[in-house]
């Protein structure tokens, strides 16, 4: 068997810390030829470049670097130089460290050397960070921040709702059937004006109409004000007066937190969509049924635009967690859902699959077949997402939009088409 000689003259490992980094360079034979601690600043990065250049780093054959994180200024600067950067999981570094020391001693310098030796021994088993465009690198920053803001909004909403259940059932009943519930601007505006049920009962229809218009309502404000007035005038159980006032003040504090996270989610959503629509892959991604600008931005944020990042559609499916895992041992064979995956891509995958049922007769037919075969709702959705990801991989590789006829060549029955319509 022929042995492939790696073009890299040496291998570098960087043990990352908040204010400094330990650097180790090993040659092809495993000898440590450099060991240095640098600061987390421009001067420290210049020292790192000098160390690499001293040991054979050139533009044609850059020294690869292994580090335990995929983010930060140091990683960004290393990627800007065009060299391959490998983000190694800290658990994997701990396993490699035990190969060289049975005493389990640990230090930053030892970890840096372990990272360098990981590339020297097993570099083909690891993947470098993708060579995404600048816009594709900005997309995950905005999309993940927006998704985090949505999760924060849900948490703040639940805290406020739990507080209001103790003393203010009227406000919960007033917005129980609304799409955004307490997160809507109307609910937050009215709650700010009347933080207790006693104050809510004093609101007149005219005052409620003014509050609704302040919240941005343009149509049906008068009818909605009458409805809210009727709800607030009903009989409810009450806390003691002073206790009710105290609970109202606590609810106002939670309401201010909810106002902030709602504003953050809205602003980040606008910024995310604007950045996504500037990308050349946006039209292809949004051509798929069930993918809008926001969900499409989340998909782009997790898969990037480096076409060499995934060797096949199966690799993308495994990354998203939609491809199953098969475990065999002797006569035993078990097929399980994948636990180790990109959680954010998996989350948007379920939303994508669920939304596609409404807009794609082929997707609805595929889902129904999986359900008829015995899959539960979640498993059928995951299987549909697995198929959609394979189509997305093909379309992005060939730069063609989604085609319903090619995606699902077997047309669904007439009854299914009428149901989808």
Structural features:
Nucleotidyltransferase, domain 5, 57% helix, disordered C terminus
Secondary structure: elements and pairs:
Blueprint lengths: L9 E7 L3 E8 L4 E8 L2 H13 L10 E3 L5 H8 L4 E3 L2 H8 L10 H15 L11 H31 L4 H6 L10 H9 L3 H5 L3 H10 L6 H12 L8 H37 L4 H5 L6 H11 L9 H8 L4 E5 L2 E5 L6 H17 L1 H12 L4 H22 L5 H4 L6 H7 L1
Describe the fold and architecture.
- It is a single chain.
- With 421 residues, the protein is of the alpha/beta class.
- The chain has three domains: 10-129, Nucleotidyltransferase, domain 5 (2-Layer Sandwich); 140-274; 284-420, no CATH class.
- It contains 19 helices and seven strands.
- It has helices at 42-54, 73-80, 90-97, 108-122, 134-164, 169-174, 185-193, 197-201, 205-214, 221-232, 241-277, 282-286, 293-303, 313-320, 343-359, 361-372, 377-398, 404-407, 414-420, and strands spanning 10-16, 20-27, 32-39, 65-67, 85-87, 325-329, 332-336.
- Strands 3-2-1-4-5 form a five-stranded mixed beta sheet. A two-stranded antiparallel sheet has the order 6-7.
- Residues 1-6 and 414-421 have low confidence and may be disordered.
Structure at a glance:
By secondary structure, the protein is α/β, with parallel strands linked by helices. Helix content is 57%, strand content 9%. The protein has 3 domains: 10-129, Nucleotidyltransferase, domain 5, CATH 3.30.420.10; 140-274; 284-420, no CATH class.
End-to-end CA span: 60 Å
Could you tell me the mean pLDDT? 90
**Portion of residues within helices:** 55-70%
User: Tell me, what's the shape?
Assistant: globular
Give the neighbour order of strands across the main sheet.
3-2-1-4-5
Number of domains: 3
Radius of gyration in whole Å, from Cα? 28 Å
Question: What is the count of helical runs?
Answer: 19
- Unreliable spans are 1-6, 414-421
| Largest sheet report | 5 strands, mixed
Number of strands: 7
Order of helices and strands: EEEHEHEHHHHHHHHHHHHEEHHHHH
Structural class: alpha/beta
β-strand amount: 5-15%
């Amino acid at each position: 068997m022929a042995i492939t000689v790696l073009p890299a003259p040496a291998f570098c490992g960087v043990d990352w810390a908040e204010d400094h980094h330990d650097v180790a360079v090993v040659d092809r034979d495993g000898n440590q030829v450099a060991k240095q601690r640098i600061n987390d600043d421009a001067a420290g990065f210049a020292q790192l470049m000098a160390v690499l250049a001293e040991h054979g780093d050139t533009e044609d054959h850059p020294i690869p670097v292994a580090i335990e994180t995929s983010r930060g200024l140091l990683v960004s600067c290393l990627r800007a130089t065009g060299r391959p950067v490998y983000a190694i999981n800290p658990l994997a570094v701990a396993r490699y460290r035990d190969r060289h020391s049975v005493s389990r001693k640990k230090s930053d310098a030892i970890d840096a050397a372990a990272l360098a030796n990981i590339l020297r021994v097993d570099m083909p088993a690891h993947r470098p960070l993708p060579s995404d465009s600048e816009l594709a690198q900005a997309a995950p920053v905005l999309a993940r921040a927006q998704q985090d803001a949505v999760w924060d909004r849900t948490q703040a909403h639940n805290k406020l709702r739990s507080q209001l259940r103790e003393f203010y059932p009227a406000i919960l009943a007033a917005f129980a059937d609304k799409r955004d519930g307490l997160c809507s601007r109307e609910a937050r505006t009215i709650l700010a004006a009347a933080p207790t049920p006693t104050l809510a009962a004093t609101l007149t229809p005219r005052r409620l109409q003014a509050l609704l218009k302040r919240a941005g309502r343009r149509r049906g404000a008068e009818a909605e004000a009458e409805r809210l007035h009727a709800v607030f005038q009903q009989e409810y159980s009450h806390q003691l007066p002073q206790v009710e006032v105290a609970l109202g003040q606590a609810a106002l504090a939670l309401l201010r937190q909810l106002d902030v996270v709602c504003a953050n989610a809205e602003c980040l959503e606008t910024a995310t969509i604007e950045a996504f629509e500037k990308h050349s892959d946006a039209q292809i991604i949004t051509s798929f049924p069930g993918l809008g600008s926001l969900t499409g931005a989340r998909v782009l944020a997790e898969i990037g635009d480096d076409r060499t990042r995934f060797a096949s559609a199966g690799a993308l499916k495994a990354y998203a967690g939609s491809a199953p895992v098969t475990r065999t041992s002797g006569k035993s064979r078990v097929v399980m859902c994948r636990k180790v995956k990109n959680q954010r891509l998996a989350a948007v995958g379920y939303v994508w699959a669920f939304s596609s049922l409404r807009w794609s007769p082929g997707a609805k037919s595929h889902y129904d077949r999986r359900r008829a075969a015995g899959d539960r709702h979640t498993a059928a959705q995951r299987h549909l997402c697995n198929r959609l990801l394979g189509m997305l991989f093909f379309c992005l590789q060939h730069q063609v939009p989604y085609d319903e006829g090619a995606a699902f060549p077997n047309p669904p029955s007439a009854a299914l088409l009428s149901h989808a319509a």
